[in-house]
Amino acid sequence: xxxxxxxxxxxxxxxxxxxxxxxxxxxxxxxxxxxxxxxxxxxxxxxxxxxxxxxxxxxxxxxxxxxxxxxxxxxxxxxxxxxxxxxxxxxxxxxxxxxxxxxxxxxxxxxxxxxxxxxxxxxxxxxxxxxxxxxxxxxxxxxxxxxxxxxxxxxxxxxxxxxxxxxxxxxxxxxxxxxxxxxxxxxxxxxxxxxxxxxxxxxxxxxxxxxxxxxxxxxxxxxxxxxxxxxxxxxxxxxxxxxxxx
Length: 246
Fold this sequence. Notes:
This protein has eight helices and no strands.
C-alpha cells in the first residue's frame, strides 16, 4: 500500500509540474507578444519623430508657430488652419474681397473689432491668432448640430464662410454652393498639400506670405496647387443676403 501511495504521489507531482510548466510557457508567450507589440508601437512613434512628421511642410515658414498656436487654441490640426488660409487669401496680406474683408484670414473691419484684439488686420500673425480664436468660438456655438468631431469642424468652417446664423438656421452646412465648395476645398487641401505625413507630396510648391499684389497670372487648373485658389469670402457679409448671418 505504501508503494502504491508513493506512486500516486509521484504521479500527482508530475502532473502538477507539467501543468505549471505549460502555464508558465503560455504566459511567456503572452508576455513576449505584449512586449513585441509595445516595441512595434514604440518603434513607430520613434520613426514618426525621426522622420519629422508634419503637416506644415508647404506652409510659409514664418507663420508656422502662429499656425500651431491657432490650432491649439481651436483644437484643430495646424494643417487645416493652413488650408483655410490658403483657401481664403492664398497667403496674400493685401487680399481684399468685394465685401470688404482683408488680410490673410479675411476679416471685415467690423468683425475685426470683435476678434482683432487691437492688432493690425494686415499683420499675418495677428490675423492667424484671430482666426484661431474665432474658429474656437464657432466650434462651441455650432457643435450641438454635429454628431462627431469631423462634423464639428465642417460646421465651424461653414460658419466662418456663411456666418454662424446660417448654420443654425439650417442646423448644418447651409445649402449654398459657395459654402459647400469652400468646406470641401479646405478638406481637400488638408488631406493633400497639408496632410500630416513624413513624405510630403513633391508636386506641391512652397507657399510664401505675399506682401505685395503680384500681377495676376493664369494658373493651371489641373495642377495640385490649383486647389489653393483663394476664395476670400470668410467672415464677410454674405453675397447671398447682403448681410452676414451672425
